[in-house]
Amino acid sequence: EAGVAQSPRYKIIEKRQSVAFWCNPISGHATLYWYQQILGQGPKLLIQFQNNGVVDDSQLPKDRFSAERLKGVDSTLKIQPAKLEDSAVYLCASSPRTGWSTGELFFGEGSRLTVL
Amino acid sequence: AQSVTQLGSHVSVSEGALVLLRCNYSSSVPPYLFWYVQYPNQGLQLLLKYTTGATLVKGINGFEAEFKKSETSFHLTKPSAHMSDAAEYFCAVSVRGGGADGLTFGKGTHLIIQP
């Protein structure tokens, strides 16, 4: 079974530029999560989708971050314009469950963003 | 809201020695508890989980953890460390409730294995 795929793995941009990350969850997984992991910290949930609807985006900085999950499969996370503090690893995770995930998530390898 | 505290951002042990990584949680409802491991430049991998029932849970690579409700703890142990155990370890909690139901993570503990 293929795992969660993310791209690009690494991205370096200058502040005020834009960037987009892509995630393809495990086939059949209904729920998709984007996490932000800043160096030295644990991952923080940015947004959760169930199928193609948003369950929660309360911690997503909506003035610069946006995310979508078209057709309930792939998802993209966009940052525009980027700030220095957005330097982090962006992790995508998926779960086969709807409703409560019970916490068993399957993670991709992450996309490392460096903002100069 | 739930939270997780991991004591010690770095833990160093000798190869063959006991590994003990500490985790305390806060939750107003019965939690599900997890340990995830992250190797360099990789995503997070589930090590073990506690849901209900037996409070001592065993995971992959010889790790185990014990849920102690009275102490609100879920410490991770391994009797004998191996060089391949060097990684970042995250304790996490999940609770049933409205809204987002993903994991809430601690800040992580970097495990260093000395030869």
Please provide a brief summary of the model.
Chain A contains no helices and eleven strands.
Question: What are the defining features of this structure?
Answer:
heterodimer; A: 116 residues; mainly beta; globular; B: 115 residues; six-stranded mixed sheet; five-stranded antiparallel sheet
Describe this structure in words.
The complex is a heterodimer of chains A (116) and B (115). With 116 residues, chain A is mainly beta. Chain A has strands spanning 5-7, 10-13, 19-24, 31-37, 44-50, 53-56, 65-68, 75-79, 88-95, 106-107, 111-115. In chain A, the strands form two sheets. In chain A, strands 2, 4, 5, 6, 9, 10 and 11 form a seven-stranded mixed β-sheet that branches. Chain A has a four-stranded antiparallel β-sheet with strand order 1-3-8-7, with no helix packed on it. The radius of gyration of chain A is 13 Å and the shape is globular. The N and C termini of chain A lie far apart (37 Å). The model of chain A has no long low-confidence stretch (mean pLDDT 92). Chain B has 115 residues and is mostly beta strands. Chain B has strands at residues 3-7, 10-14, 19-26, 32-38, 44-50, 56-58, 64-68, 73-78, 87-94, 104-105, 109-114. In chain B, the strands form two sheets. In chain B, strands 2, 4, 5, 9, 10 and 11 form a six-stranded mixed β-sheet that branches. A five-stranded antiparallel β-sheet of chain B has the order 1-3-8-7-6, with no helix packed on it. Classes of the chains: A mainly beta (116), B mainly beta (115). The A-B interface holds A 4, 33, 35, 40-45, 48, 55-56, 58, 91, 93, 99-105, 107-110 and B 4, 9, 32, 34, 36, 41-46, 49, 51, 90, 92-94, 96, 99-108.
Helix-and-strand structural type of chain B: mainly beta
Assembly form of the protein: heterodimer
Residue ranges of chain A: pLDDT <50 for 5 or more in a row? none
| Distance between the amino and carboxyl termini of chain A | 37 Å
Fraction of helical residues of chain A: under 10%
Tell me what portion of residues of chain B adopts beta-strand conformation: over 45%
SSE topology string of chain A: EEEEEEEEEEE
Number of strands of chain B: 11
Largest sheet of chain B: 6 strands, mixed
Portion in strands of chain A: over 45%
The counted number of beta strands of chain A is: 11
- Gross morphology of chain B: globular
Structural class of chain A: mainly beta
**Mean residue pLDDT of chain A:** 92
Order of helices and strands of chain B: EEEEEEEEEEE
The radius of gyration of chain B is 14 Å
Largest interface: which pair?
A: A-B, 26 and 28 residues
